[in-house]
Write a structure and sequence with these properties.
The structure is a single chain. The protein has 90 residues and is mainly α. The protein folds into 2 domains: 4-56, 434 Repressor (Amino-terminal Domain) (Orthogonal Bundle); 60-90. Helix content is 60%, strand content 0%. The longest helix has 15 residues, at 72-86. It starts with a helix and ends with a helix. 11% of the residues are buried. The model has no long low-confidence stretch (mean pLDDT 82).
Amino acid sequence: MANMKEIARLAGVSLGTVSHVLNNSARVREPMRQRVLKAVQDAGYQPSELARGLRRDKTDMIGMIIPDITNRSEERRVGKECRSRWSPYH
């Protein structure tokens, strides 16, 4: 799996430029932006939410302990509760 360093190497740009393009955090000239996006597509890059969470010290994930994982109805009920209580889209 490709990482941002690999994308930077493929696009011939700095790691910071890749970061700016992916996060849309700074103005990057359009030809350079297109090179980075092409490298992202060619390499099949998928950002790692876990890595991003470690870097930001925030994951937006919760953990659950379910006493009986064979009980699918309990799993669905807990999942619905979590989505309704904590989802920003409810």
